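A reminder from the course coordinator: this example appears on the midterm review sheet, so study it carefully.

Given structure:
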């Protein structure tokens, strides 16, 4: 594995006013993001934040920016399936690749045996995981938000994805915002494996 030195980033402050935006008790909104730097492909990070106050981020020693964006959605949906069964789920990302893939392209890819006009679908292993999770949750909506345009949720996920890239470990913070920073704990990548073989968040 490639090693990267950890450089502390500014503390991410999450205010109650931000989390109080959630108005529909039957819907949980996830903002998610991916990060790859300083080169693409290279070291990657991903994150999600929910309107209920949950936060999770992590990273991998090598991948592409598009893969990082997909991991952000995958971990969002896995968390939704485990923690919010029966709820309507809304996934918001600044990645056109992730959002359009989930909401528009995937059905055609499946009908065509996961192939496009130019060959096999790229990152097909991740798209198949997404397809399975979407089928499991059923009531899920995907929406795009313009990145780096003043949306507080998007800016927060961007900061956390970069933190995940730097740490390359899993960190989960539950929904009570007053516990947000004192309870950050490092979760080793190999310690938490989901049914799909990907490391997961754990409390």
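Designed residues:
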């Amino acid at each position: 594995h490639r090693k990267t030195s950890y450089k502390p980033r500014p503390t991410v402050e999450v205010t109650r006013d931000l989390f109080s935006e959630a108005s529909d008790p039957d819907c949980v909104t996830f903002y998610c993001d991916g990060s790859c730097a300083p080169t693409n492909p290279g070291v990657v990070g991903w994150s999600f934040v929910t309107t209920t106050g949950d936060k999770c981020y992590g990273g991998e020693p090598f991948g592409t920016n598009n893969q990082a964006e997909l991991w952000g959605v995958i971990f969002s949906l896995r968390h939704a399936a485990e923690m919010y069964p029966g709820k309507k789920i809304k996934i918001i990302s600044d990645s056109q690749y992730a959002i359009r893939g989930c909401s528009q392209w995937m059905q055609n890819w499946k009908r065509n045996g996961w192939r496009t006009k130019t060959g096999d679908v790229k990152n097909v292993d991740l798209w198949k995981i997404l397809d399975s999770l979407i089928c499991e949750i059923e009531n899920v909506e995907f929406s795009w938000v313009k990145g780096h345009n003043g949306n507080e949720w998007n800016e927060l996920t961007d900061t956390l994805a970069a933190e995940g890239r730097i740490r390359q470990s899993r960190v989960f913070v539950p929904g009570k915002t007053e516990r947000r920073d004192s309870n950050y704990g490092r979760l080793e990548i190999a310690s938490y494996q989901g049914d799909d073989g990907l490391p997961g968040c754990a409390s």
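The first strand starts at residue 27 and ends at 37. The two ends are 25 Å apart (CA to CA).
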